[in-house]
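Pyrophosphorylase, pasting as requested.
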Amino acid sequence: MATVKSTDLAHQEAGKMMSLITNQLPGLIQQLNSHGQTLSDPNQWDGPLAQRFRGEVWPQARGDLDKMRASLEHLQQQVQKILTNISQAGGA
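Structure tokens follow.
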């Protein structure tokens, strides 16, 4: 059986990561989506740069935000495994 080392600091840092992933980042991603949607509305902003934003910039950014959300879900699962591992090792 492999030896597992875990410190209180490791547990604290994993907990902080989990807090950011579950409490702060989803809200920030949602805010970015909301702002992007508003800027994509020609009733709110129009002109050549606005059209470029709507047609090129925002669709790419929205896709990137969706990928980020999926990556965060995966990271959340991995951090939960870390916290479980640390707890089982007696580091918390």
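Note for the archive: The chain has two helices and no strands.
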